[in-house]
Amino acid sequence: MKSEKYISPAVIRRLPRYYRYLGDLLAKDITRISSGELSKRMGITASQIRQDLNNFGGFGQQGYGYNVEYLYKEMGKILGLYKSYSVIIIGAGNLGQALANYTNFEKRGFRIEALFDVNPQLIGLNIRGSEVLDMAILEGYLRDHAIDIAVLTIPKTSAVEVANLLVDNGISAIWNFASVDLKFPGHSVVVENVHLSDSLMTLSYQLKELRSETPLEE
């Protein structure tokens, strides 16, 4: 399902959360839910939920609420999860291997085809059925294989160069864990920049605020 109107990034970032909560409801055999009930579970206002879903057609019925199974399936279509995506991981260190070992990716249709690294000690390893290949053969591999998504788990010093190589060889989606923001103006490329340290620093701020609000015991 492709939306014909502009959808704000904030709404898009909430969609996977809707999908996850709806999946939890299905697992509990809950067949329908109102926006108010969903609001209590998710910590989002009922008005916000209705506004978000109205971007894609609404899906609710007056006096009934939402059919959980139907909405779950439609949300999966909106997110593109009923397709299969071939994925390679650039960087087979701790993070790259952890991502390759995460079984939920396969359940969502993301198949890890191979990993790439420059470290001779890692080349040839098999990570859950995916071999670690030499970075030297990356270009040839991309010519011979239809890869949808590349995951970058490499130092920022080489991230831009590697990302440009990927884009030049047909990659149109990059999940970037390198600590640098990648942008490709003028190219048909989508990038999701993930900064793990930013998330941890956000948690640090919240912890600081929580402790400052907690009165000290005498």
Automatic annotation (TrEMBL):
- InterPro entries annotated for this entry? CoA-bd, NAD(P)-bd_dom_sf, Rex_DNA-bd_C_dom, Tscrpt_rep_Rex, WH-like_DNA-bd_sf, WH_DNA-bd_sf
Instruction: Indicate the residues that the entry says bind DNA.
Output: 17-56
Q: Which keywords are on file for this protein? A: Cytoplasm, DNA-binding, NAD, Repressor, Transcription, Transcription regulation
Q: Name one GO biological process term.
A: response to redox state
Q: What's an example GO cellular component term for this entry?
A: cytoplasm
Q: Where located? A: Cytoplasm
A single Gene Ontology MF term assigned here is: DNA binding
The residues covered by the CoA-binding domain are 80-181
List the residue ranges forming a coiled coil, or say none: none
Q: Which domain of life is it from?
A: Bacteria
Signal peptide positions (record): none
Which residues does the annotation say bind NAD(+)?
A: 91-96
Q: What does this protein do?
A: Modulates transcription in response to changes in cellular NADH/NAD(+) redox state.
Membership in a protein family: Belongs to the transcriptional regulatory Rex family.
UniProt subunit comment: Homodimer.
The cross-references to HAMAP family, in alphabetical order and at most eight, read: Rex (MF_01131)
NCBIfam families according to UniProt: PRK05472.1-3 (NF003989), PRK05472.1-4 (NF003990), PRK05472.2-3 (NF003994), PRK05472.2-4 (NF003995), PRK05472.2-5 (NF003996)
Q: What protein is this chain from? A: Redox-sensing transcriptional repressor Rex
Q: List the source organism.
A: Bianquea renquensis
The top of its lineage is:
Bacteria, Bacillati, Bacillota, Clostridia, Eubacteriales
